[in-house]
Amino acid sequence: MGELLQVNDNNFNDEIIKSELPSMIDLWAPWCQPCLITGPWVEELAQKHDGKFKVAKMNVDENPMVPNQFGVRAIPTILLFKGGELMDTIVGAVGKANIEKAMLKLV
């Protein structure tokens, strides 16, 4: 099963930027209703693309530095990285198929 990482401001660079695999991070908060919709989709995609993609979640209330670094103004926001570079940003609960389509552009 694909591992869904819990990433924070301290380990973000090691887990996401330095990842050899393309990476996706779901920026969310427990009070955010659209985030609660997106969360299960992210978990399913982590399992489905295990070994091809690194998938993580980050609570923005507990970790403000990374969202500020990437100019995140709304949640849920999904950031997609490849080779340490931000390749795509998805804002809102856009649907699992749309998230997966963005992921597959990076593999």
Task: Please tell me about this protein's structure.
The chain is α/β, with parallel strands linked by helices. Helices cover 34% and strands 26% of the residues. The protein has one domain (4-104): 3-Layer(aba) Sandwich (Glutaredoxin). The radius of gyration is 12 Å and the shape is globular. It starts with a strand and ends with a helix.
List the helices and strands and how they pair.
Blueprint: E1 4-6, H1 12-17, E2 23-28, H2 33-48, E3 54-59, H3 65-69, E4 77-82, E5 85-91, H4 96-104
Parallel strand pairs: 1-3, 2-3
Antiparallel strand pairs: 2-4, 4-5
- The count of domains is 1
**H/E element order:** EHEHEHEEH
Largest sheet: 5 strands, mixed
CATH superfamily: Glutaredoxin
Question: Could you please say which CATH topology applies here?
Answer: Glutaredoxin
Assess the beta-strand content as a share of residues. Answer: 25-35%
Q: What percentage of residues falls in helices of 4 or more residues?
A: 25-40%
Principal-axis shape equals globular
Short description:
With 107 residues, this protein is α/β, with parallel strands linked by helices. Helices cover 34% and strands 26% of the residues.
Q: What descriptive keywords fit this protein?
A:
107 residues; alpha/beta; Glutaredoxin; five-stranded mixed beta sheet
